[in-house]
Amino acid sequence: MTKKIAIIGATGYTGSELVRLLTYHPEVEIVSITSETRKGEKFSDVHPQFLGICDLKLESINDLDKHDPDIVFLALPHGVSMDFVSKNHDKGYTIIDLSGDFRLNDKATYEEWYKKDHIFEQGFENAVYGLPELYRDQIKGSKLIANPGCFPTASILTMLPLAIEQVIETSNIIVDAKTGVTGAGIKASNVTHFPNVNDNFTAYGVSTHRHTIEIQERMTDCSSTDVSLLFTPHLLPVDRGILATVYLKPKGKTSQSTIDKLYQKHYENEPFVRYRHTIPQIKQVRGTNFCDVTAKYDSRTHTIIAIGAIDNLVKGAAGQAIQNMNIALGFSETLGLHQVPLQP
Amino acid sequence: MTKKIAIIGATGYTGSELVRLLTYHPEVEIVSITSETRKGEKFSDVHPQFLGICDLKLESINDLDKHDPDIVFLALPHGVSMDFVSKNHDKGYTIIDLSGDFRLNDKATYEEWYKKDHIFEQGFENAVYGLPELYRDQIKGSKLIANPGCFPTASILTMLPLAIEQVIETSNIIVDAKTGVTGAGIKASNVTHFPNVNDNFTAYGVSTHRHTIEIQERMTDCSSTDVSLLFTPHLLPVDRGILATVYLKPKGKTSQSTIDKLYQKHYENEPFVRYRHTIPQIKQVRGTNFCDVTAKYDSRTHTIIAIGAIDNLVKGAAGQAIQNMNIALGFSETLGLHQVPLQP
Amino acid sequence: MTKKIAIIGATGYTGSELVRLLTYHPEVEIVSITSETRKGEKFSDVHPQFLGICDLKLESINDLDKHDPDIVFLALPHGVSMDFVSKNHDKGYTIIDLSGDFRLNDKATYEEWYKKDHIFEQGFENAVYGLPELYRDQIKGSKLIANPGCFPTASILTMLPLAIEQVIETSNIIVDAKTGVTGAGIKASNVTHFPNVNDNFTAYGVSTHRHTIEIQERMTDCSSTDVSLLFTPHLLPVDRGILATVYLKPKGKTSQSTIDKLYQKHYENEPFVRYRHTIPQIKQVRGTNFCDVTAKYDSRTHTIIAIGAIDNLVKGAAGQAIQNMNIALGFSETLGLHQVPLQP
Amino acid sequence: MTKKIAIIGATGYTGSELVRLLTYHPEVEIVSITSETRKGEKFSDVHPQFLGICDLKLESINDLDKHDPDIVFLALPHGVSMDFVSKNHDKGYTIIDLSGDFRLNDKATYEEWYKKDHIFEQGFENAVYGLPELYRDQIKGSKLIANPGCFPTASILTMLPLAIEQVIETSNIIVDAKTGVTGAGIKASNVTHFPNVNDNFTAYGVSTHRHTIEIQERMTDCSSTDVSLLFTPHLLPVDRGILATVYLKPKGKTSQSTIDKLYQKHYENEPFVRYRHTIPQIKQVRGTNFCDVTAKYDSRTHTIIAIGAIDNLVKGAAGQAIQNMNIALGFSETLGLHQVPLQP
Q1: pTM score, whole prediction
Q2: Of B66, C175, D94, D168, which is the most buried if we count CB atoms within 10 A?
Q3: Cis geometry, peptide bond prior to residue C280 (ω within 30 degrees of 0)
């Protein structure tokens, strides 16, 4: 039976990607898309590419309950999500929150890195971190799923097998990541002004980016050791895509074939992770839920260079949210997510 | 019952787009993809984005007949297509030729504009021009479909209602068109070298581009008048997309609402043409079979500025070919072609 | 003796380009750069690329007179410029206004196209239109120079010899122009948001762009006939550059060599116009004051396709302003303007 | 007195950048530009942006001696340069070689990393490594200058003060570098095909790039300790520019202000290195000989993240070559190198 979906927050990229991908899904129906600023307008007025594809009228969040949804996606800024969750967490539907409000371990860490009070501490306990490759069993039946950040998804999947198998030093991991501009959202700003991005490249948020702690907490959890991790994001003159280059020290002797086998073992049954022998390219996953990964051992410096690529709006946001929905609802995990990369 | 598809010529963009789009098609199976230069390799070796999606082994064209295909797509250069057609036109399957070999009215015109001998004159008579919006009835049951060029598709659809209704002067039509780089094919050259394209823009093929005569012949046919048409292509620093800006003189008095009604009448039942009141943008059709069109009347100079946008690899090539296949085989015309534009 | 220069309005692209180019000028000194919003900060705080090159402290416009400047460049929005001019037109210095406030023939036309009252009608009489290739003699000694718009500069220079020689029909000229994003200014907006521009292309301001009337008035003046002209701008995913493709009907018989000779005659002594036999490319003039032009005769349709390229921030703004300054002050016209195109 | 310059190898980007920059130099004259494949043509036929700026006729290398040059720039591929040097090293002129043939310490290391025999071992002894910030005194009067590679220039300058002061662990330095496409040269290839680069990003040459050993040797030399260094290059969808992100471990306790002072001390008198408090951006040095650098201390992980940006064709090639020429000839070091960054 078709499941009823609501999307809270229609005007951003996360909202439009959810609609784009759900259009391909055979077992769900979007019953409501909300926007407080644009309510009454059509979804295709806000996102003109949807003309004739999704012309639903945008509603207020206040009309949500009358639709009796099965799943509610929160495509809201952090800080706003927690407010919704605090009021609606026991309504019966499953909430998949695409913001950062429930991804961390606890309120104190959240407040330190997000420089913001958290008003719903109980959520940290309720929420499961929605990375299927790591927490698939916990996602089943969960009522509150914290959908991972884009950088954490790319970074964690790039090194996950090494961490789980405990074959790397965890005291000194370096993640050098590069993202497309959609990571900064749909709102125009100096940072996203075309002449400031085009033919340009720079780093930002050095030492202070919130995704640092999100990655570090998950790595600590899956490796059962305290991880110390440095994360440096950079801004690429592209629309979509994250490439994470991760530098890791093997604990003892290792070899390329050992590493290959370890990744293959962990990923051979994962529908969306492709372990490759060629170097991942962001365009080879564009528009899809794939995460392409490779890992190379440099014997000269005894270092593993692991490289992973995702589409930040799909595996890094809306696609992973739908993958989580499929798991939570008991659908086949890949339903609606068979897009082919748009390359070129 | 599933139909059997063969794709002749796997290494170019037309080939990879056919595979991409056919992946979404529920009623067909790709039984053979051929490449003489890469045979024996996997399709995903040539186009790495397909890893895990299409890993078919590439075959020689000599193995085609044993698959007993229902449809054969020719993704070959012009000049090579005619050779295939001359040898295989009576094999029983329907041929959809994506090259320019059978699009024009006759051998003499072909040889003048293509600077090349044509070896299969009979093909001009057999072939139907595969623009469904103009020749849908003839496409049904055809055994040889000449899939339109990318610029002609965009240009013709942008002005088609005006031509059919005979409300414009046909002596002096100007088409100023702009295309993405994939229009030049997958083969690297000076023209497509990144530092020659990026942050650059220029015109090319001024007065001499082969698509000029293709557009002019179709416009003459549908308007039942001799058309004289000037076509100027330009190269955009983008991957995909054509925007055609067409300048036309109305025969007598007209108005914006007259023009709007005329386009709406002609296009309201067309599944892939979206008549818009906003100006089309190439990114709003990216990856899809849509053609977005608008027409604006400038009363000050008594001119209609009609603007249309397509994805040159989809509505301008592989998507339209599949639309033609659907018509030829009696499928629903939109089967497998419900992609949502990848914007951003 | 070194001349003293002031730049009013430092925060935009016009301001930063004036500083960039004047850095190369041996005979002038920048004595003041003003900004009401950023005064007190250094110029290199606003434009960090100037660190160590121009670290002047920004001043208020109220401090201008104490510097006793010889030339004042107005890098202000239209509407603001006229206010400055109305108050300061008799201060003795030459004003070069880079806005549109004094480019048109009269107040009525301005108010029709700019949808704004004009408060200084006398300026229309005082001002000379600063296109040296057309009004060099009038620029000498002028006290108020209306620096041409970017599109008008490219469009007029592309067809000027044909107009002056009166060899074209003037009733039906079509200018299809394409510009880089810096034409929209330094202020971030939806239009300039990277994911809305990158890999995209569209038209805008169809029928209504203010540069239409500016081009038409100058063409009427130089051809001594009423000109009716249609102008359609498009937005390119590039930083800088305008390419104008102009369609013109020759009055009688003509030929390629006739047209070549005519352009060569008019442009052989122009230091910044390069008549080319190859098609101009915007990157071949990037960062420079050149305008590259070609003209091709299409005998099949009896049409001239004239194509011109400029850097919209240089020949289309700051560079031409400095060229005008050189003429006004009696310097060699090319002083400080010997930049080599940045290609690639 | 004007010095006579010859450029061997005119068709590539290094050749065209040398001509571009030397156009601004008041004390030299280009007496010969050679190209064996295009000899007899004009320089502006090969690089059309130079029309009217440099229309010199290209010569054969065999005509070089008759010009009696003072300086000869070799803009040749590695392997070809060594051949020229072996034959002409005692001709009296100074040779500035922009290839990699004489940058390393010795023949054995060269042959290991370049997979090629070296035919002129004596050159390793004769050549000085042309990084003025490190070897200024040795460059004066040198007859053979090995102009540094683009990645080494960016990487070394980013960490040089830390190495000289011996405040970092040298056993485990990580350089994550990103370059524009011009780094791959002017020759079209799959790697530089626009649809393979645009909206894409990837790493290449992981563990094996030749610049690894070049950086490591110089770091070893200036820090007087054995350095072990890992270098990973990535390809950006931009024309020009390298950004190097370098991860270093301080030996003992340190602080942001200690690091700032150390960089300021080393770079305050360097005309082309700008130590910044903001993060360098490649567009802020575009077209210029600047290297912008910052260094940030992350106390949480006790790591220094040093970031540097150059234009790979200027400070990474032709600009640094001219800086070396100025030093070798006794000119002011900045002569002809006062370009302002082209931003936007």
Answers
A1: 0.98
A2: C175
A3: no
Backbone angles phi, psi at D128, to 5 degrees: -105, 145
Q: What is the pLDDT of residue A1?
A: 76
Q: Give one DSSP letter per residue of A161-208, joined into a string.
A: HHHHTT-B--S-EEEEEEE-GGGG-SS--GGGBHHHHTT--EE-STTT
* Catalytic residue flag (residue B150): yes
Which residues of chain A lie closer than 8 angstroms to D279, CB-CB?
Answer: 202-204, 206
**C-alpha D140: how far from its chain's center?**
18
Sheet holding C202-203: strands in order across? C202-203, C229-235, C173-179, C242-248, C303-310, C291-298, C273-275
Which residues on C lie below 8 Å from A193 (Cβ)? 186, 188, 192-194
CA distance D49 to chain C (A): 5
Q: Which residue has the tokens 């890893």?
A: B51
SS3 C309: strand
Instruction: State the amino acid at position A161 in one-letter form.
Output: P
Query: What's the CA gap between B260 and B254, in Å, rounded?
Result: 11
Closest-CA residue to C248 (of C268, C228, C233, C225): C228
pLDDT of chain A, 344 residues: tens digit per residue: 799 999 999 899 999 999 999 999 999 999 999 999 999 999 999 999 999 999 999 999 999 999 999 999 999 999 999 999 999 999 999 999 999 999 999 999 999 999 999 999 999 999 999 999 999 999 999 999 999 999 999 999 999 999 999 999 999 999 999 999 999 999 999 999 999 999 999 999 999 999 999 999 999 999 999 999 999 999 999 999 999 999 999 999 999 999 999 999 999 999 999 999 999 999 999 999 999 999 999 999 999 999 999 999 999 999 999 999 999 999 999 999 999 999 99
Those of residues 251-290 in B touching chain C at CB distance below 8 A are 279-283, 286
User: Alpha-carbon distance D134 to D112, whole Å?
Assistant: 25
Query: Which positions of D are annotated as active-site residues?
Result: 150
A237 touches chain C (CB under 8 A): yes
Q: Does D188 touch chain B (CB under 8 A)?
A: yes
Length of chain B: 344
Is C182 an 8 Å CB contact of chain A?
Answer: yes
- Report DSSP state, residue A2: P
